What does this fold into?
Amino acid sequence: MPTLPAFGTWFRLAWDRIAALVLVALGGGVLVLGWLGVSRKAYPAAQLPFIISGGIGGMFLLGLGAMFWLSADLHDEWTKMDRIEQELHRFSNAVLAQGEVPPTTAAGIRPGSRAETPESESRVATHGPAIATGS
It folds into this structure.
């Protein structure tokens, strides 16, 4: 069994996944309760409150749980991408510190540098042909 500080750390880091699981479980429970309520009533007018509260409420909780789970997955991906970006910057700085010049592209631009274009050559993206904006 995990100790309290380890569980607290895990809970703090994975709160969105825990919330997703709780919401999905609640949504499933509400759907089951709504189904039980509907199945015990013979008249459609008596079934409506169960359909509204159980069906719609349960589906809302399931959707909210799915949203939290996807948000947690996106957060994990962003964290991975940040680590990759930091490693690339560290590697790039190490290569530049050794005095090696990084290769250039076919246009003569070093990767990672900003290509400066004169104001007269700037273009506006349109659905038709490119339009020069400079004078």
In short: Strands lie at 123-124, 131-132. Residues 44-97 form the longest helix (54 residues).
